Each structure stands twice: as structure tokens, then as C-alpha cells.
């Protein structure tokens, strides 16, 4: 990178990772293509350039904290010379509504929701998807994971978001929903059409086995229907 990533993000060199993420999101609010759909072509092109620059800066800063930006499953393999790989299949991601998750009484109906976000643009502009699952109220369990399941969870929350629904947009690229154990299980099991995600590693951030790694499927199976859980999905 030609420019200093800290300069691009507008933060001091001793800034924390949380401060870097906040600065990145402020830039995304200004330059993400989802925000520039109705502007002139030259303005949109400049926004794309600035967003790409911000992504590279955020990647460099996160690398310095030992947390690489590119999530597992998003690295493109080298393309053999003279041979074009087959087009990727279009996997359909289940939405929150299709997962059976209720909306708050009085929620805005479909057709009055906010403009649908572009999952394709998000996938092209960012590479780190992160989900944090924790018990609501007193935190007795908190886990996090990345990869394609996290990307699919974010897509479900983004596309299921309603102005007066139970899914809250915390800030750009960050959505949270609080559900009981059964609804949480339905959401996490429905976002991908296969069971390969059950083997994805999950980091235990808080709990009796803090610091260990579990399979995502084991975490889902441990959810207690009598408890409530927060699911927070981010993209960078």
C-alpha cells in the first residue's frame, strides 16, 4: 500500500482495533457503493476507489493485530493458464422470515422496508465476516466465528431487516437480533443449504471453556430453548 493505512483511516498509530473499525465504518457510510446508487458516474467511481483504499487500510491494520481480514473460504485459487474455471453456482441464502423467526407486532410490512442492500457488492468490497453469539442479559457464553456461514448469517439479517422489526442495524455492516434458543437454532441452521458449515471452527470468547475451539454444529446443538441469545453479524 502506497499510503499509510492509519492515515487513510484517519486514526493515530496507537489506536485500538475498535477505533480502527469505527473509523472504517465512518468511511463506509460515505463511500460504500450501496450509498452512491443515485450519484454521477464519476462520483461513484471515486467512491469505489476510496472504499477499496479503506478496505486495504483496514486489512493492514487488522493484520497488525494478528487478525487477518480475509476470511476462510474467500481466497480465490490461482486460475490455470488457458483454462477458465466454471462459473460459481448461485447458492440461495434463506432469509430470516423463511427461517421462521417472528417480527415484532406492528412491524412494517414487506414493501415498506428499507431499500434492499446489495449482497453482491458487499461480497466484492469486503472479505471479513464475523458473527458473535452470546447469551442475552448476563453473559454466560460468548462465541465467535467467520467464514461462509458468517457471511450467510449477515446476508439473512441484512435482508430480513425492517424499520420496526426485531433485527437492529447497529451501524453500517453490523446487524443484531435477539431470539430464544429455538429461533436462534433455526436461524443458524437455515442460512446455508448444506451441512458442511457444522464443522466450521468457533472460538469460545467467554464461558466455562474459554479459549477453546468448538465446531459450529456443536454450539448450535448446545443452545438452550429456555434462554435468549444475541446474534451479531459484522462485515469489514
How would you characterize the overall build of this protein?
The protein has helices spanning 5-9, 17-31, 41-64, 119-125, 148-160, 181-190, 216-222; strands at residues 129-135, 142-146, 167-171, 174-180, 201-206, 213-215, 228-235. It is an alpha+beta fold and 236 residues long. It folds into two domains: 5-64, Orthogonal Bundle (Helix Hairpins), CATH 1.10.287; 119-235, no CATH class. Strands 3-4-7-1-2-5-6 form a seven-stranded antiparallel β-sheet. Strand 5 and strand 6 form a beta hairpin. Mean pLDDT is 75; it is low at 67-94, 103-119 and 121-126.
| Overall form | globular
Order of helices and strands: HHHHEEHEEHEEHE
Average pLDDT number:
75
Radius of gyration, in Å, reads 19 Å
User: How many individual domains?
Assistant: 2
Strand order of the largest sheet: 3-4-7-1-2-5-6
- Total number of helical segments? 7
Strand content: 15-25%
Low-pLDDT ranges: 67-94, 103-119, 121-126
Q: How many angstroms does the end-to-end distance come to?
A: 18 Å
Secondary structural class: alpha+beta
Question: Largest beta sheet, briefly?
Answer: 7 strands, antiparallel
Count the beta strands: 7
Question: Share of helix among residues?
Answer: 25-40%
Amino acid at each position: 500500500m502506497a499510503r499509510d493505512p492509519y492515515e487513510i483511516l484517519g486514526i493515530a498509530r496507537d489506536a485500538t482495533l475498535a477505533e480502527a473499525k469505527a473509523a472504517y465504518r465512518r468511511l463506509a457510510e460515505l463511500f460504500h457503493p450501496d450509498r452512491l446508487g443515485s450519484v454521477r458516474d464519476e462520483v461513484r467511481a471515486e467512491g469505489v476507489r476510496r472504499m477499496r483504499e479503506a478496505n486495504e487500510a483496514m486489512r493492514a491494520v487488522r493484520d497488525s493485530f494478528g487478525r487477518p481480514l480475509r476470511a476462510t473460504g474467500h481466497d480465490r485459487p490461482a486460475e490455470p493458464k488457458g483454462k477458465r474455471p466454471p462459473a460459481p453456482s448461485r447458492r440461495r441464502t434463506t432469509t430470516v422470515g423463511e427461517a421462521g423467526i417472528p417480527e415484532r407486532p406492528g412491524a412494517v410490512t414487506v414493501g415498506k422496508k428499507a431499500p434492499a442492500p446489495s449482497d453482491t457488492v458487499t461480497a466484492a468490497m469486503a472479505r471479513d465476516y464475523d458473527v458473535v453469539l452470546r447469551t442475552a442479559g448476563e453473559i454466560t457464553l460468548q462465541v465467535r466465528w467467520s467464514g461462509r456461514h458468517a457471511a450467510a448469517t449477515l446476508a439473512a439479517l441484512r435482508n430480513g431487516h425492517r424499520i420496526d422489526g426485531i433485527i437492529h442495524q447497529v451501524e453500517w455492516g453490523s446487524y443484531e437480533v435477539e431470539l430464544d434458543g429455538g429461533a436462534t437454532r433455526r436461524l443458524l441452521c437455515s442460512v446455508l443449504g448444506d451441512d458442511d458449515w457444522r464443522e466450521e471452527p468457533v472460538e469460545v470468547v467467554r464461558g466455562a471453556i474459554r479459549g477453546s475451539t468448538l465446531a459450529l454444529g456443536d454450539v448450535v446443538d448446545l443452545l438452550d430453548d429456555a434462554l435468549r441469545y444475541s446474534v451479531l453479524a459484522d462485515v469489514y
